[in-house]
Amino acid sequence: MSLPESYVSIRGLSFSRGERMIFNDLSVDFPRGKVTAIMGPSGTGKTTLLRLIGGQLLPDAGELVVAGENVPQLSRTGLLEMRREKMGMLFQTGALFTDLSVFDNVAFPLRIHTKLPESMIRDLVLMKLEAVGLRGARKMMPAELSGGMARRVALARSIAMDPELIMYDEPFTGLDPVSMGMIVKLIRGLNEALGLTSLLVSHDVEESCAIADYLCVISGGKVIGFGTPQELLDSDNAEVRQFLRGEPDGPMPFHYPADDYRQELLNGVS
Ligand SMILES: Nc1ncnc2c1ncn2[C@@H]1O[C@H](COP(=O)(O)OP(=O)(O)OP(=O)(O)O)[C@@H](O)[C@H]1O
User: Fold this and answer.
1) Which of 69, 158, 186, 246 has its CA 20 to 30 A from that of 80?
2) CA-CA-CA-CA torsion sign (6, 12, 17, 21)
3) ipTM > 0.90, yes or no
């Protein structure tokens, strides 16, 4: 498969949490201007990968090149600049500021990071809110919004600074089917309208297949499948197929790694 030029290029990435090896010599390229959904069993390190790309975590080894720059080697100022100018992130925990209106939430990054006059900030905020269909809700407070609306405001805020790369961590969680459909449409639509490179971590196979140009399946610290949704649904790899089809039986382990069960019972370990 020949891929378009990559925007994020990861080589030989290793990362551990205590004794637990999360990534072991992982290499992958995420194509520029495309939506790639990162999938895999729970606890496999999908959120961790986004945090490594965003420079919030440092790898034990390897390169994470974003727009030509190796993120772990950036100075603190360089990293902040890269995040501000190139990256937008929409994490599950990325809550809105409850004491600021919808308008002020979206204006926040522009006011903090730019010296633009208020009249220009107003135009930009209205443009971003229009893009997520909430220009009419600009005076509302976060407590007055539904979960789906709040997610869309957070999305408008994460594109306020016109990022090149946007990372979504479980953007569909807790949404009703209509709001979920809207977010799906928005992620796809914004990617095309703004020429973004989008990385999406999600457990929702159906939604991910609907919007992603590529799927990247991670398991056991490595990439076990990368391709278009159709290519992976037809994959020769039983683990990839099991995951995408949601089959309980297959090569994917049910148990989190643990010491021998019999020994633990005999030793009375708690
Ligand atoms: N702050 C932390 N300290 C120690 N271990 C952590 C921390 N955060 C995550 N982990 C561990 O790192 C591993 C990967 O976590 P991560 O959240 O990246 O997985 P995930 O694939 O996103 O999972 P899920 O799909 O369930 O959200 C897990 O085993 C988790 O227990």
Assistant:
1) 186
2) positive
3) yes
CATH of the domain at 114: 3.40.50.300
pLDDT digits (tens, 9 = 90+) for 34-61: 999 999 888 899 999 999 999 999 999 9
170 within some domain: yes
183 within some domain? yes
Calpha distance 253→60 (Å, rounded)? 26
Ligand 1 centroid to residue 172 C-alpha, Å: 19
Q: Decide whether any atom of ligand 1 lies within 6 Å of the 22 Cβ.
A: yes
The pTM for the full model equals 0.86
Identify the band that residue 138 occupies on the pLDDT scale cut at 50, 70 and 90: very high
Look-up: residue for tokens 């603190």? 76
Q: What percent of the chain has pLDDT over 90?
A: 56
What is the CA 236 to chain-centroid distance, rounded? 27
> Domain limits at 71?
6-267
Q: Going by CA atoms, what residue is nearest to atom 29 of ligand 1?
A: 43
**CB of residue 92 inside a 6 A radius of ligand 1:** no
- Length of the chain as a residue count: 270
* Residue 56 Cβ contacting ligand 1 at under 6 Å: no
Pocket test for ligand 1, best of 14, 15, 17 (most atoms within 8 A of CB): 17
Task: Report the 10 Å Cβ neighbour count for 229.
Answer: 19
Domain count, the chain: 1
Cβ–ligand 1 distance for 119 under 6 Å, the answer no
Task: Give the atom of ligand 1 at the shortest distance from the alpha carbon of 44.
Answer: 21
